[in-house]
Design brief:
The complex is a heterodimer of chains A (233) and B (89).
Chain A (H helix, E strand, L loop, with lengths): L2 E5 L6 H11 L4 E5 L10 E4 L19 H11 L3 E5 L1 H8 L6 E3 L7 E9 L15 E8 L3 E3 L2 H9 L3 E6 L16 E5 L5 E4 L17 H17 L1
Parallel strand pairs in A: 1-2, 1-3, 3-4, 4-11
Antiparallel strand pairs in A: 5-8, 6-7, 6-9, 9-10, 10-11
Chain B lengths: L1 E10 L6 H12 L12 E8 L2 H16 L5 E10 L7
Antiparallel strand pairs in B: 1-2, 1-3
Classes of the chains: A alpha/beta (233), B alpha+beta (89).
Chain lengths: 233, 89
């Protein structure tokens, strides 16, 4: 699985994502600066977490209009895989690759803690290594993770099973929806199934030594998807 | 012609504004008890040059496409003629 991690000014989870795909999974990976106008040949593009452009104007707004995003959109149009984590999810909504928007956390606090995520849809390229209903322990670290969509879009996301991860509580000390997201939505996929955005950080939960490896399954799902499609070809 | 644009970006009325609510609580605690419906938005100023109609068209595009996110924000602007800015003179 060839992976390209995009770096925007202010991205700070780029190296964590790069580490998971290159060192933990041993896949060919590259880093590409936001002002580049071409993407290397790649299967997966990762838009990493961080504070691109200091969250100026709106989180992810300026990054979404970076030169490289034109290429990322073309990659998505060709059916290429795109994973947006945290700030990356914000960039995806600002660029129109995913519906909705991420608003300020309801309690106005920057939240930095572990949450429980329920896998709602285990049939996507990003979640096939999980089972439906599986609970994952993954950290969040965000001030603007409150997912919002108008009623019609929300209904469509639900009826099309495009909510892939939802916040849940009731295990150990997790309290459920931390930020007020509508329908407790933590991560969604696009209609075509090749673009996913989530607020939690699976790249920070991909090695037991960091406290949880529940996030590795997301990357393994992508590996499996590509392996399967390669066999089909 | 040179113009100064005053741009007001606000959360749509249907969106909950926890920041506004916090500010309202703060005003109440300070004794301003009749205050209600506090909403916090964004104010942007910029200068640009051109014919009035062209300037309006440009502003409509930049406020709609970049300066605001129509999913959750409303935007409006005012234009006023100004003398040449010192940096251009």
């Amino acid at each position: 699985m060839k992976t390209t991690v995009i770096q925007f000014p202010g991205s700070n989870c780029d190296m964590d994502a790069f580490h998971v795909v290159s060192s933990v999974l041993g896949q060919p990976s590259s880093l590409v600066w936001h002002s580049e106008t071409t993407l290397p040949s790649t299967d997966l593009v990762i838009l990493p977490g961080g504070f691109s452009y200091g969250d100026h104007l709106r989180s992810g707004a300026i990054a979404a209009r970076s030169p490289i995003m034109l290429e990322v959109k073309k990659h998505a149009e060709r059916g290429g895989l795109v994973l947006g984590i945290c700030n990356g999810f914000q960039v995806l909504t600002e660029s129109g690759l995913l519906e909705g928007a991420l608003l300020r956390n309801q309690n106005l606090h920057f939240l930095c803690k572990d949450v429980n995520l329920k896998v709602e849809n285990s049939k996507t390229a990003f979640s096939s290594a999980y089972s439906k209903g599986q609970i994952l322990r993954i950290p969040i670290a965000h001030g603007e993770g409150n997912f919002y969509a108008d009623p019609e879009t929300l209904a469509r996301l639900e009826s099309e099973n495009r909510v892939v991860f939802r916040y849940v509580g009731a295990i150990e000390d997790a309290e459920g929806n931390p930020n007020g997201s509508m329908n407790d939505i933590a991560g969604i996929v696009n209609a075509r199934g090749n673009v996913l955005g989530l607020m939690p950080h699976p790249e920070r939960a991909s090695e037991e030594i960091l406290g949880s490896s529940d996030g590795l399954g997301l990357f393994e799902s992508l590996l499996n998807t590509l392996a399967t499609s390669a066999l089909v070809k | 012609m040179n113009y100064k644009a005053k741009i007001y970006v606000t959360l749509k009325k249907s969106i909950l504004d926890p920041q506004g609510r916090t500010v309202e609580n703060s005003l109440h605690r300070a004794g301003f008890s009749s205050v209600q419906n506090v909403r916090v938005g964004k104010y942007i100023e910029l200068e640009l040059a051109g014919e009035h109609a062209e300037v309006e068209t440009q502003l409509e595009a930049m406020t709609r496409d970049i300066l605001s996110n129509p999913i959750m924000e409303a935007v409006r602007f005012e234009l006023e003629e100004i003398a040449l800015s010192a940096t251009e003179g």
